[in-house]
From TrEMBL:
<dbReference type="Pfam" id="PF14223">
    <property type="entry name" value="Retrotran_gag_2"/>
</dbReference>
<protein>
    <recommendedName>
        <fullName>Retrovirus-related Pol polyprotein from transposon TNT 1-94</fullName>
    </recommendedName>
</protein>
Amino acid sequence: MASSNGNFPATLPVLEGGKKFDQWCAKMRVIFGFQDVLDIVKEGVQEVDSGATEDQKAANKEAKKKDCKALFIIHQCVDMGNFEKISNVTTAKEAWEILERAHAGNDKLKKVRLQTLRRQYELLQMEGNEVVGAYFTRVLSLTNLMKSYGERISSQMIVEKVLRSLSPRFDHIVVAIEESKNLEILTS
């Protein structure tokens, strides 16, 4: 939702501790994109040399404004504990990198988390009294988490997982879908 001035969303996501860092990052990337500062956060601002043209100096000044805007957004979207980690940095890129190092974990930890998610995915079954929509939401939530750790899962794989893990009361529907549809064109 946009605020009355159209510049910022009415509510911003706040990173509290390190909980749900991946989801917070995804939301922040969208906000940075909306505010046209995503490149600044990723790549930083390049300094211009003393012999720069007026156009280059103006472009650098604009980039520095965007950097301040991005840093302001980051400051607004972290709790006090995370703010203390980034309070002395002067660029959005530095702040973002500090938060990533503090919360994203190393590659080994990501691999362990992905293995745990894969196991949950393999064992996932629809509960006997569960509504199909709720089960589908559980599957999508889990697959989105797996994707955030680098797993490649196609829509077809998700559809196939749902069809083979529905409760037995849906067996006749699953057979009808498999017989009448090309599963390669169904999407999740």
